[in-house]
Design a protein that fits this description.
It comes from Manihot esculenta (Cassava). By secondary structure, the protein is α+β, with helices and mostly antiparallel strands. It has 36 helices and 25 strands.
Length: 939
């Protein structure tokens, strides 16, 4: 076959490859001295002569090189027209092998003479391809078939060609490091030899036909998710001969026949794309070679696509299938967190924390296909995009030009996704060849969703692992788990954690459900949930810690600590007014929310807006919920009073003493994405919110008239990676329930650190290092503090590593001795009075208000205060009962606006004989989180 012995083949490959490479390098130099009007012609001529060289070499060598040529010929969306035009001649139009050789192979493989096998055998092949050629025939029983016969000696040639191709790829990677195709080549070397056994192809054909519901004369048994394609039935197979049912059809490259039969090319390519989406996302078993030569279109209406040639077929694991589906949906929804999580699940590792660039690359995979006449502009756009991405990498890593050329941002590239990306590229090339535009995100999305929802929707009724497998700590936890199962079967829960302490000991620590709507991984005790305004309770505790350490006082004017805030009548606002929601600055950041919600990620801009704001009520007169401004008011006081960054105080005051490293963040650092729960909305609860009328006790920018927009946009906004990484001290807490419950268990005992968390909980609480895995960007000189280049205060600061605690020292001792031996967070024996705004502090808080000083008061039906805490929009909550030494935390990702949290709290408190605060004892579908965040605070 082709060009003599293996050594001469290798020499020819390298000779032509070198010639083409040097030709293009020369044209690059000539281009610099060519006028603009002649550059296009210069490159067109170069493409034309090099395409002819490539075609002549491939025809000369045949074997594996034909497959490469076929692949290039399908990429009309990215390759010059000359290559597509010349190389498409390789699609089933190679010189045929002698018929005597073909007949000899058939007789040897099947053990019978041609006359005993066939009543008719067409000596002229229907098609000749790289590995085999196909003849039409009629069996002795008169059944019309096609016979696929492997070329003699092709196995030796293919295996040698793989070695040669590998050598060429290695050479290209050395000469042009940015074009390193070794991961693709390695996977091809592993998969290509399987095409040489037609028994494997026969079984692959049967499997795909069965999966797609293509069983002949069995329409009633087609699965619900079947697609409208045809696959020929396998009649007989050996290693080198395959006999298939004959299907009369039109080749996809036969435009005249397609038009004559009235074939809708758009519909055909869409159905082919759906068939591949089904194979990838539903079956996890797909044909890896969808070039035009492997398809026909049936001549009879409705002109079904016919799928051929299943030699190169890839099987992927369920976990890989789900990760690919998650990657697709993350790309479709712009969810950076889900994308990085999908990368981690499939084994794709990046050397840098570059989520934006990773999203751009992934979007390129699934972008809408381009028409053939748009190929040049598409190539130009992709090249510009790549240059932009590499520039970002260069600036991030501080690489020189020569270093950048050899820098690979991918640390590990799993082989399983090589064939997947090849299929996507071939499908894109197919649509360009057919001159149709396919919107992949629309066509493939239902199949990707099905791949994940099939697992996600396996609620407790059918999933014995829905409750995370840890031993119950008490009878009440056993009863709670039964309630969670009931709520899960009613689809009220997607993912949830509940943790409770009684008398300093853990009595509940349960995790259940899944991490997200498109994330079927189980919720674990260390999973991180976004908890919205629960974060205010954390921020308030930090400020009280500074007060306890003598850095600021409750009755200090905040302007004395934070001079910039003095303007516009704010000089009389005290620290206690901020904590009590009576500062009059409840609408201070409404302008940011209305103009651009993402500005809340910009710490400096939010601080500037606070400083420029004008109070709407006199300090201490009205308690109006500071739903948005509370965090930055507290954050500004914290930073100015301490002289440290917000994250440093969070670490020193709360995270390290409680040993909850890695499970409580205000703004997540890189490297924890795989543990994040994703938010979704319980749409069944929206009707309850729509019944609300305008409330005078709510900020003007937070009226129920905008509630539908609010609750539907919040999940999308807070699932964004840049939002999750920003320091938003009123709303961007990410924590596990066990970390949050431990926090309140310490507060309920006046700041005394509880004993180590339950050993049942795995992994152990505090076992995650609170250290970013990637270096942070350097702060521009014009920015103060540790902000990103756009002013965003990021959780990738060095302040989130363990090193800053040693540098921070301790306010209490002055020498840092307290930080490793702390037994109490607070020294004030009356700290509960400070939290609640009672006793000697009662003149600092509204006497009958829902808030004390920073915390929501837990009010019993008789009007007394039993404890304190804070709930968040969506259902997450944390609170404690002082007298009963009880603390509980609930975190969930399906944002519930009804009584889900209340049901859980009611059960637990009832079993433990804990009096219910009125927020949790009231009836109805609206839970305490909605009452707090939307339902007002003075009623």
């Amino acid at each position: 076959m082709g060009c003599g012995n293996i050594y001469s083949r290798r020499a020819r490959v390298f000779a032509v490859a070198s010639l083409i490479y040097l030709d293009y390098k020369a044209v690059q130099q000539i281009d610099k001295w060519t006028v603009d009007s002649k550059r296009a012609a210069l490159w067109d001529k170069a493409h034309e002569r090099n395409a002819k060289r490539a075609l002549n070499l491939i025809i000369e060598l045949e074997g594996l090189w034909v497959k490469l040529g076929q692949y290039l010929s399908t990429r009309a969306d990215v390759f010059p027209h000359a290559y597509v035009s010349h190389l498409k001649k390789l699609q089933d139009s190679l010189p045929p092998r002698p018929v005597q050789e073909v007949c000899h192979t058939i007789e040897k493989e099947l053990g019978k003479s041609m006359d005993d096998l066939f009543s008719y055998f067409d000596r002229t092949p229907l098609a000749t391809a790289s590995i085999a050629q196909v003849h039409r025939a009629r069996l002795i029983n008169e059944e019309e078939v096609v016979v696929k016969v492997q070329h003699a000696g092709i196995k030796t040639v293919i295996l040698e060609d793989l070695k040669n191709a590998k050598s060429v790829v290695d050479w290209i990677a050395w000469a042009e490091p940015q074009y390193d195709f070794n991961p693709i080549m390695d996977e091809w070397c592993k998969e290509a030899p399987k095409e040489l056994d037609f028994n494997i192809e026969a079984e692959n054909t049967r499997t795909v036909a069965r999966n797609l519901g293509c069983r002949k004369n069995d329409d009633d048994s087609k699965p619900v998710k079947s697609v409208d394609v045809l696959i020929p039935e396998v009649i007989q197979s050996t290693e080198k001969v395959l006999i298939l049912e004959y299907m009369d059809g039109i080749r996809l490259n036969d435009n005249e026949s397609l038009e004559a039969y009235g074939v809708d090319k758009q519909s055909v390519v869409e159905e082919i794309t759906r068939a591949y989406a089904h194979q990838i996302y539903i079956d996890g078993f797909f044909n890896g070679d969808p070039h035009p030569g492997n398809f026909l279109v049936s001549k009879e209406p409705p002109h079904h696509p016919v799928l051929l040639d299943f030699g190169l077929t890839k099987k992927i694991s369920t976990s890989m299938k789900q990760a690919l589906a998650k990657m697709f949906l993350a790309s479709a929804e712009g969810d950076h967190v889900a994308l990085l999580s999908a990368f981690a699940e499939m084994g794709l590792r990046l050397r840098l924390d570059i989520p934006d660039q990773a999203m751009e690359v992934t979007n390129t995979f699934f972008r809408t296909s381009t028409l053939a006449n748009e190929a040049f502009e598409n190539m130009k756009s992709l090249a510009e995009q790549r240059s932009k991405q590499m520039k970002v990498i260069q600036e991030k890593v501080k690489l020189k030009e020569k270093e950048l050329k050899r820098f690979d941002p991918v640390d590990a590239f799993p082989g399983d996704i090589v064939i997947f990306t090849r299929v996507l590229n071939l499908l894109r090339g197919l649509s360009s060849t057919m001159n149709v535009r396919i919107v992949y995100q629309e066509v493939m999305r239902p199949f990707a969703e099905s791949a994940l929802l099939g697992s996600v929707n396996k609620g407790p009724a059918v999933n014995s692992q829905w409750i995370y497998d840890t031993p119950p700590h008490s009878d009440v936890e056993t009863k709670l788990r039964q309630l969670l199962i009931e709520l899960g079967n009613e689809e009220k829960i997607l993912g949830i954690q509940v943790c409770a302490y009684k008398d300093g000991k853990v009595v509940i620590d349960t995790a259940a459900g899944v991490l997200g709507r498109y994330d079927p991984r189980p919720v674990q005790p260390d999973s991180l949930f976004p908890v919205f305004s629960v974060t205010k309770g954390i921020t308030a505790g930090m400020l009280h810690w500074l007060i306890d350490n003598g850095k600021v006082k409750l009755d200090d004017n905040i302007a004395n600590v934070w001079p910039e805030i003095r303007t516009n009548g704010k000089d009389q606002i005290k620290v206690c007014h901020v904590l009590n929601h009576t500062s009059g600055l409840h609408n201070a950041l409404a302008v940011l929310r209305g103009a651009n919600p993402l500005l809340m990620c910009d710490w400096e801009e939010c601080m500037n807006q606070i400083c420029m704001s004008v109070p709407e009520t006199a300090p201490g007169q009205e308690q109006l919920y500071h739903y948005f401004s509370f965090g930055w008011l507290c954050g500004g006081i914290i930073e100015h009073a301490s002289g440290k960054k917000f994250q440093e105080i969070l670490k020193e005051a709360i995270i390290q003493p409680l040993n909850i490293e890695g499970e409580l963040y205000v703004g997540i650092p890189p490297g924890v994405e795989s543990r994040l729960a994703s938010l979704t909305v319980d749409m069944n609860n929206l009707s309850d919110l729509l019944e609300m009328y305008s409330r005078l006790d709510l900020p003007s920018s937070f009226q129920p008239s905008n509630i539908v927009q609010l609750v539907t946009t919040l999940p999308a906004l807070f699932n964004m990676l840049n939002v999750r990484r920003a320091i938003i001290p009123a709303a961007n807490g990410h924590c596990s329930a066990r970390a949050l419950a431990r926090y309140y268990a310490a507060l309920v005992d006046g700041g005394t650190i509880p004993p180590p968390h339950s050993s049942f909980s795995k992994p152990p609480l505090g076992s995650h290092p609170h250290i970013p895995k990637f270096p942070s960007e350097k702060t521009p000189k014009k920015q103060k503090g540790r902000n990103g280049s756009d002013g965003t205060r990021l959780a990738t600061d060095p302040s989130s590593s363990t090193s800053d605690v040693s540098a921070a020292g301790s306010f209490a001792s002055g020498d840092g001795s307290r930080k490793n031996s702390v037994e109490k967070i607070f020294t004030n024996p009356r700290i509960h009075d400070a939290f609640l705004g009672v006793g000697e502090h009662e003149n600092l808080a509204m006497p009958n208000g829902k808030f004390g000083l920073g915390f929501r008061r837990a009010i019993l039906n008789d009007g007394s205060f039993s404890g304190f805490g804070h709930s968040g929009m969506g259902g997450s909550t944390g609170f404690c009962d002082i007298k009963n030494r009880f603390a509980i935390a609930v975190t969930l990702n399906k944002m519930s606006y009804g009584g889900l949290t209340r049901e859980i709290i009611q059960l637990v408190c009832s079993e433990l004989n804990i009096p219910l605060p009125e927020d949790f004892s009231s009836s109805g579908d609206r839970g305490p989180d909605v009452q707090l965040n939307i339902g007002g605070i003075a009623d």
